[in-house]
Amino acid sequence: MEELKMLSPLEKYTLMLFYAGGGAKGKLWFQKEVFVLSRAFEELVEEVDFEAFGYGPYSEAVEECRNALENSGLVIGTQLTEEGRVISATLWESASDREKEIIKATAEFFESLERDELLLYMCVLYPDTVEKNKEIDRILKRREEIALKMLRDGKVSLSLAAMLAGLSVEEMIEKAMKKRIELF
User: Fold this and answer.
1) What CA–CA distance (Å, rounded) separates 20 from 109?
2) Is residue 129 in some structural domain?
3) Are 111 and 25 in contact, with CB atoms under 8 Å apart?
4) Is 31 within a domain?
5) In sequence order, which residues have a C-beta less than 8 Å from that of residue 11 and are 6 or more positions away?
6) Which of 35, 63, 91, 117 could join 113 in a cystine, given CB atoms 3.0 to 4.6 angstroms apart?
7) pLDDT digits (tens, 9 = 90+) for 81-91
8) Helical H runs in 23-114?
9) What is the DSSP annotation of 151-181?
10) What total of structural domains would you count in the chain?
């Protein structure tokens, strides 16, 4: 397919990301997913320039890429069109096992997160990418509650839940036991 040769690395990874995850919940999730992928794939770093933003890392290049794919008829919002699915399937088949594994794991994890969970995750793991605002302050005040829910739902490990909550692992075990969250 000739059009595959014309796609930039960012466009290719975007299409594969939407293919692996069945699209993205929205632009907020999409931006964060590409941010994480840019840490795994060097060729993306050259195309994206993420800045700290009120809801975590944001890249104008990522939004421009999504707009270009939409104008090309390959996506609508953050979902693949039928033509987009055909092209994405071809890209997926030509991707390395490492690329598939990282993209699929990223899509599955981020797409499982609710908005507050996503923002808490970004605040704690990538604090330099999140500008403080009233919504972030509200989420940080609820961080223990959010982390316990993520643990209960099996979205994060005990150690990551503790980190998200701002607690030691021992403190997290104690809180989880009080909430009757199964740990093992």
Assistant:
1) 11
2) no
3) yes
4) yes
5) 65, 68, 69
6) 117
7) 999 999 999 99
8) 27-40, 42-45, 60-71, 82-94, 97-112
9) HHTTSS-HHHHHHHHT--HHHHHHHHHHTT-
10) 1
Instruction: Tell me the three state secondary structure of residue 53.
Output: strand
The enclosing H or E element of 80 equals: strand 79-80
pLDDT at residue 46, as a whole number = 87
The owner of tokens 């839940």 is 161
Place of tokens 């997290």: 172
Give me the pLDDT at residue 2, please: 63
* Closest alpha carbon to 11 in 72, 83, 97, 52: 72
Residue whose tokens read 């071809």: 90
Q: State the helix-helix crossing angle for 27-40 and 9-21, rounded to 10 degrees.
A: 120
**Residue 36 lies in domain:** 2-110
In contact, 52 and 139? CB cutoff 8 Å: no
Q: Tell me if 128 is assigned to some domain.
A: no
Enumerate residues 6+ apart whose C-beta is below 8 A from 65: 8, 10, 11, 14, 47
* Distance between CA atoms of residues 171 and 162, nearest Å: 8
Nearest partner of 175 among 44, 88, 166, judged by Cα: 166
Report how far apart the first and last C-alpha atoms of the chain are (Å, whole number): 49
Predicted confidence at residue 24, as pLDDT, reads 96
CA distance 35 to 20: 16
Is residue 58 situated within a structural domain? yes
- What is the Rg, in whole angstroms, of the alpha carbon atoms belonging to the chain? 18
